[in-house]
Amino acid sequence: MTRGPRCITWSYLLIPTAQPGKFSVDNHRDPGAEAEELQVQDTDYTTFALMVSRRQSGSQSILRVYLLCEPSSASLQPRLGRMWAIEIQALDKFVCLLRAQGLSEDNIVFPGSADWSSHQRTC
Fold it and tell me: ∠ CA 15-66-25 to the nearest 5 degrees?
């Protein structure tokens, strides 16, 4: 993820649980980290995945909803870097998943995209 002129990276290990699509997260770099669970909600196994992460930090419950996607090969621009072309169907599913988790479009952050707005009104 880019933050101004810096690129921030992180890694963690997903450990499968007995339930398909559900993982516990091993934050091996942060031994004091609270337990975290991650659930794959939807994926087509090639272009997108919708995931929900839950963990506790002290008395605060932290919920994250992720839309992971691949850049469109047609939208790779050598001089501008990668341009992300998110399929409308995946974006619609993401917005619906946010709403199902009790979040709103105001909670959406797309790094490097200040002009994003949803077009879908119903799930």
Answer: 20
SS3 content of the chain, % helix, strand, coil (to 5): 15, 35, 50
Interatomic CA distance for residues 87 and 16, integer angstroms: 28
Residue 62 has which token pair?
Answer: 């932290």
Residue range 54-101, pLDDT digits in tens: 988 888 888 999 998 876 554 444 444 555 567 788 888 998 999 999
How far apart CA 111 and CA 2 sit, in angstroms, is 7
Alpha carbon distance 111, 30 (integer Å): 24
Strands (E), the chain: 2-3, 6-7, 13-16, 22-26, 36-43, 48-57, 60-69, 76-77, 81-82
- Single-letter amino acid code for the residue at 41: Q
Nearest to 62 by CA among 14, 32, 103: 103
Length, in residues, of the chain: 123
Return d(Cα 26, Cα 82) in angstroms, integer: 30
